[in-house]
Specification:
Layout: H1 3-17, H2 28-41, H3 56-66, H4 72-92, E1 96-101, H5 107-115, E2 121-126, H6 129-142, E3 151-152, E4 170-175, H7 185-199, E5 204-210, H8 215-221, H9 228-244, E6 253-260, E7 265-272, E8 276-280, E9 283-287, E10 292-299, H10 303-312, E11 315-322, E12 328-335
Parallel strand pairs: 1-2, 1-4, 2-3, 4-5
Antiparallel strand pairs: 5-12, 6-7, 7-10, 8-9, 11-12
Helix pairs in contact: 1-2, 3-9, 4-5
The structure holds S-adenosylmethionine.
Length: about 350
């Protein structure tokens, strides 16, 4: 979605907050969820923010996606991490506060933690509360010497970072999984600039970035034969049913994912199989047959395009690691010195 549309959606969400009285619970998280759902579904091109995929079930389904034969990103990124873990850990240095954005099950993080025994603390940040805390418990058992400070937050909004008991010499962010691809390029620039500001001089960002490749490989990765990605996509409607008294019939929507070559991104949609009106709390949304809800983008980058994006956000690329087939990359970015 271009930035103009994004701004329109944000304004629309603010308007919809006026309808918060309709929201089923008084919690502000539920009210925000309702406002954003109604804002997105009443735009000319219907959208839902991809962060709402991740309730407990969504996080489990994402983990299943990571195990699929067709889903090359996870195993490829993990293989890059395994091959270069020592070098990556050396870049973090001693007494580093490692902050992971969108930590999920922290699976690839373990490869890094195994090679970096002298961190000041590990701070996993994720929106999926139950999954985050379960994962943190598992990590505490595996790394009893390491201080683990989970933060449940929406990382696109300001949140407080915990201070480790042992004082940290520097902060390095970790953002694997090519989750950066879920941001439109202008949003990605803004988001990376915020990370650069957080890490400050001497800090860095270790980031997983999916690379441009044969569209057939991409198509298979987002349209797996077992239908796990379809279930993950549809889960957002189920979540609306559970948390916002939605009335979506999941069989009346179909998963649709394709590579948009012009924009260099995978687009995931949910397509209405018929004309229908769906109640959500006190509201209702009308769909015509074939109309879609755009649920996620996953931008793919060339090495050069990502380097320019990083530079525009105040970083420089210090290391670039890839796999033999150049499917995926892990990059270490350092905060560029301020020009006099
Ligand atoms: C694509 S998954 C990646 C998970 C893991 N880092 C990996 O590489 O396998 C995205 C993760 O980011 C989290 N997430 C998505 N949007 C978020 C947001 N706005 N704020 C915080 N966490 C978010 C999700 O809950 C999920 O765990």
């Amino acid at each position: 979605m271009p930035i103009v549309e994004m701004t329109r959606a944000a304004a629309h969400a603010a308007d919809s907050k006026a309808a918060v009285a309709n929201a089923p619970e008084s919690s502000s998280e539920t009210a925000d969820f309702y406002a954003e759902v109604m804002a997105g579904l009443t735009l000319p091109v219907k959208t839902l923010p991809c962060k709402y995929f991740y309730d407990e079930r969504g996080s489990q389904l994402f983990d299943e996606i990571c195990e699929l034969d067709e889903y090359y990103p996870t195993r490829t990124e993990a293989s890059i991490m395994e091959r270069h873990a020592k070098e990556m850990a050396a870049l973090l240095g001693p007494d580093c506060r490692l902050v992971e954005y969108g930590s999920g099950s922290s699976t690839k993080t373990r490869i890094l933690l195994d090679s970096a025994p002298d961190l000041a603390a590990y701070v996993p940040v994720d929106i999926s509360r139950v999954h985050l805390h379960k994962t943190a418990e598992g990590l505490r058992r595996r790394y009893p010497q390491l201080e683990i400070l989970p933060v449940c937050a929406d990382y696109t909004t300001p949140f407080a970072l915990p201070e480790p008991a042992r004082s940290a010499s520097r902060t390095v962010a970790y953002f694997p999984g090519s989750t950066i691809g879920n941001f439109h390029p202008r949003q990605a620039q803004f988001f990376l600039a915020q990370i650069a500001a957080l890490c400050g001089e001497g800090g860095g960002l270790l980031i997983g970035v999916d690379l441009k490749k044969d569209p057939d490989v991409l198509h298979a990765a987002y349209n797996d034969a077992r239908g796990v990605t379809a279930a993950f996509n549809l889960n957002v409607l189920d979540r609306i049913n559970q948390e916002l008294r939605g009335e979506f019939d999941l069989d009346s929507f179909a998963h649709h994912a394709f590579y948009n070559e012009e924009l260099g991104r995978i687009e995931m949609h949910l397509v209405s199989r018929k004309d229908q009106t769906v109640g959500i709390c006190e509201g209702a949304v009308t769909f015509s047959a074939g109309e879609t809800i755009h649920t996620e983008c996953s931008y793919k980058y060339s090495r050069e395009d990502f380097a320019s994006l990083a530079e525009s956000a105040g970083f420089q690329v210090s290391r670039f690691w890839t796999d033999p087939s150049k499917l995926f990359s892990v990059q270490y970015l350092t905060v560029a010195p301020v020009k006099e």
